[in-house]
Amino acid sequence: xxxxxxxxxxxxxxxxxxxxxxxxxxxxxxxxxxxxxxxxxxxxxxxxxxxxxxxxxxxxxxxxxxxxxxxxxxxxxxxxxxxxxxxxxxxxxxxxxxxxxxxxxxxxxxxxxxxxxxxxxxxxxxxxxxxxxxxxxxxxxxxxxxxxxxxxxxxxxxxxxxxxxxxxxxxxxxxxxxxxxxxxxxxxxxxxxxxxxxxxxxxxxxxxxxxxxxxxxxxxxxxxxxxxxxxxxxxxxxxxxxxxxxxxxxxxxxxxxxxxxxxxxxxxxxxxxxxxxxxxxxxxxxxxxxxxxxxxxxxxxxxxxxxxxxxxxxxxxxxxxxxxxxxxxxxxxxxxxxxxxxxxxxxxxxxxxxxxx
Length: 357
Fold this sequence. Notes:
The protein is mainly alpha-helical. The chain folds into two domains: 1-198, no CATH class; 204-357, no CATH class. The chain is 73% helix and 1% strand. The protein contains eleven helices and two strands; from the N terminus they run αααααααβααααβ. It has helices spanning 2-34, 64-85, 89-97, 109-136, 144-169, 174-198, 200-203, 212-245, 260-284, 289-314, 321-347, and strands at 210-211, 355-356. A two-stranded parallel ribbon has the order 1-2.
């Protein structure tokens, strides 16, 4: 029993640390984008051809712009070839014809090192996920699903690394960034579920009746936040393009040049808030300590997210608020998903759960 308890705590602790590293990576990734550092390193996995990036342009060849542009184009042609063979001819054509793939990126030591730090944190996150998988084998006999979930998280982080290389080779092609964000949220959900599953005996001690209304509302809140976050990512992609076109100047003009997606994203936040308010009203009636604490955390995050959104509009999208707005949205998603897992386990305990209106 003691051995099982130690293994459970060890897996939980490394899992929580892994989730924290994923969130920190999302925050740093937001900083990379808000500072326009996404192409600080024009190649991948190295940076300007070396594992430790240069600190001066004098360390680069005179024709470095053409060299790394041509390397990106060659990689895109190879990827486009794979896509065409798999039947995605239209996507392959769009990849090759997109103008951002041919933009030359000038060396900027600050942006280079910001992007490099982002990559280092990505590697550390990968190491934490490997450790999570290693410690998950303690559950192989009595709950193989935990091991499979850990394997899936490792495969996702590997795929994310490969996708990150495409983000670089396509010079921040917008659709790639959205997929990158969606997979990050999926990874968070998988890790939360794996850790919660390892603690299911504790979670099942929270015994309350099952309600289809509450269950469906929790799922709805998770799905709405997921969609709202991806929509926000697309708005950010437009802002990035506008910022690039204006040479990162005249911030007061950026919002006025956004299309309908921005207004949908802004208005849709009211729907997300109303759904969560009604859900919280129903969940508070369960009088469960852990769920109540999570709900308070959730509404603290929702309040911050709304404030960040208002300040971004009023203050012409200041760079420091962009990553905070992004990471807060992902934290909201994580809290909602954890509430969903708790509710599922607590209401599925044998002989206790019963359906109510």
